């Protein structure tokens, strides 16, 4: 049975995602598509615009056969660690190939990944500029870098995923407003949603109706919703407690302690925290780890949880011999172990968006 | 220079407090009155209805010559530990006598305190029933017990305060509604304030106009205001983290972890937590320590801070030789040491009531 994986966030699921899944099916004899997706808090250090169940359902309606959740302690991570989680989970599912969008699919990702192995420490905390410096190629772009990270972990984790870059179409990854109607960036779509709600006509052409259906009547969530909790937590913690949190580095615990006092909104806080040293997403990942109280000692090998699947997904799952390393039904023991921080993240997310939350696997 | 202390919360300052201070002046040759007062979180495990600066000003306008704050880690304590803090601070100020309200001022407090010394462990966590059992006297009431606690620590801390019980007048300490117009209980007054605001005509006869002036246009604060923060904190903490908090005992960390999930308001939470074993105030003290994240290892000998004083208070302060053990001006070092948890408590209190907060000593 052919299989392929995509590592994604679907925040929300748009035409670009649908295109990627369709291409994946074509490249893999119409095999089973395993979507490896972030839960309620994302790689950019942000809460998802709608909860993971809704996003899983969007994906299942539009090409994915099984959606598995990246544990939150692995999703709120730099691109390199995020890629590690994706490749790790792909291996648990014994997936044959990994399909990903790329600005330059003709790059030799595996070869490029080999080049960075001896600079791993620098690469761990790399920035786009560093990557370009390293590869001496000004063409290397955001999704290419993710691809190189996948290749890196494919090597390191001794997995044998076939890498299948797919040419990205349409909008730039980081477009902030809707430009290309059909292939708008997720960022542009989120901005439109937060600003004008689901009734915005601009969304009709840039979001599939299956996605719009899930979004309609949902509470749309963004960082400012969590600002009061974040402020309370920072005020009520010692510097030593903050220093023990995941992602916190180089005295950031002192910086946030002093800056939060004069910040009365999330925007103000970000204005105060921004420096040339840290990107917005680096800061946001630190803030998310503080909000969720994830310690730096957290285990990064928890069993991932299946959020939903269709008949084909179920059939595939029954054939692999790794199902004891994957959470299908979830027990109290799992809530206290592998699912501990993901459960906490869900409960905190639900303090803002308490409705429409489902906790049972989606079977379609 | 004659001096006397009163240990109080002034939540808010009412006619009963004024009467006590007047009696104290009469008994102490019109000497200086040092009010030893809780800050923003109180012995009953509750936030104060208005902040400590306003309450200090009420007291300074109505008989107190100097108001000193009990550090928060000592104010949110059982009656026994609260009494310890009061006696400790009275000694720092080299006060001669301690004036306190009592239902039965003819009791021999010092003798009764001597009786409990060998049962100290039980006494630490005593309840009213236990005290009555111990003393074999059904007359012993709330304020009497506080008096016995003062006497106990007067003995233990080798201090030589002269105890001056003053017959309580008017309302029962625990009256929930205003009955006796002039001497209403603080509980009844708070309930009236929260329910009907400062314009309630019932308050005109039960609150001095100096107190009403401070309360008018103030935000009135109560536990439900902090419920979202409390819920967030409990959800985002491990059981092990909760177990390290001040006042937490006998598995309460597990109980609150499981009960908070199904509680959507402070009232619901209290309904779920109440047992025959714990009084409401015992539970509230645990919840306050969780909210303020005060560890069980906290030092209970911090320097107390002066909140305000008049000319007489300043004169008295200049004559005692202990001023290095008292915070008058407060430095950054103090914020990080002696005043650490009180500052945190203030900042958390200000998340609910951000206005009208002053951070400089009141000089009248």
UniProtKB/TrEMBL annotation, chains A, B:
Main location: cytoplasm
EC number of the protein: 6.3.4.-
Pfam families: HIGH_NTase1 (PF05636)
Subcellular location: Cytoplasm
Gene3D superfamilies cross-referenced by the UniProt entry: HUPs (3.40.50.620)
Keywords, comma-separated and alphabetical: ATP-binding, Cytoplasm, Ligase, Nucleotide-binding, RNA-binding, tRNA processing, tRNA-binding
GO CC, alphabetical: cytoplasm
Protein name: tRNA(Met) cytidine acetate ligase
Source species: Pediococcus claussenii (strain ATCC BAA-344 / DSM 14800 / JCM 18046 / KCTC 3811 / LMG 21948 / P06)
